[in-house]
Design a protein that fits this description.
The chain is mostly helical and 206 residues long. It is built from 10 helices and 4 strands, in the order H-H-E-H-H-E-H-H-E-H-H-H-E-H. A two-stranded antiparallel ribbon has the order 1-2. Strands 3-4 form a two-stranded antiparallel sheet. The longest helix is centred in the last third of the chain and has 25 residues.
């Protein structure tokens, strides 16, 4: 299984990471295979987006809990609402797919392949820097939404979670620079093949 950071879950994790892991598991996405989640989200999307009605249909097809869509003042609904960049368009398919791929069941290399295809928007079988940045931004958006959900679920640990959130925000720029250096050799490599991306993802370089 993977955390939202795309890493194998380890025993030696910090208290903050354990809180986020528990928060991830509470969403129930670990019960479904990442491949099926990705496929069903794509099946019900309209023009690359889903509204609440389409998301409900997609989740019901996967037998996932949809009660949060009826209770818009709940922490889980706020989590999904925090994933929406444009309120008029609704949920972006690539952001939702990223969420399901990272939190769903599946082997790490298969998840990497799904992520690659999700962000290879021009279907060139290569990932360029802009597509890599789009993936990174979605992962950070998901992480931020998970942190906000954790604050609501564990109010007594808000100070700890807030401090952890601050560290992540402060390191965001450096994290992208580091990731760009790893994948694209700091700009020397313009595009990345699926094989190279999967290899980097599978050995947890990413």
């Amino acid at each position: 299984n993977c955390s939202c950071a795309g890493r194998e879950i380890e025993e030696n994790i910090s208290k903050e990471e354990q809180i986020l892991l528990d928060t991830e598991l509470s969403l129930g996405l670990s019960e479904i295979h990442a491949f099926h989640y990705d496929k069903d989200i794509a099946r019900y999307a309209l023009n690359g987006h889903l509204d609440d009605r389409l998301l409900r249909t997609a989740y019901e097809s996967m037998m996932l809990d949809t009660k949060f869509l009826d209770e818009k003042d709940t922490p889980v609904y706020r989590f999904y609402d925090n994933l929406v960049a444009n309120k008029l368009e609704g949920y972006d398919i690539k952001t939702l797919s990223c969420l399901g791929i990272l939190l769903g069941k599946g082997e790490i290399n298969k998840k990497a392949e799904l992520l690659f295809k999700n962000y290879d928007r021009d279907c060139s079988n290569e990932l360029d820097v802009n597509e890599g940045l789009a993936m990174f931004n979605d992962m950070m958006q998901i992480t931020s939404a998970l942190i906000e959900l954790a604050k609501l679920k564990y109010p007594r640990k808000q100070i700890m979670i807030t401090n952890y959130s601050r560290k992540i925000k402060e390191s965001r720029k450096n994290s992208w620079t580091y990731l760009q250096m790893l994948l694209f050799q700091g700009g020397l490599v313009e595009k990345l093949s699926m094989q190279d991306f999967v290899a980097a993802f599978a050995d947890q370089t990413v």
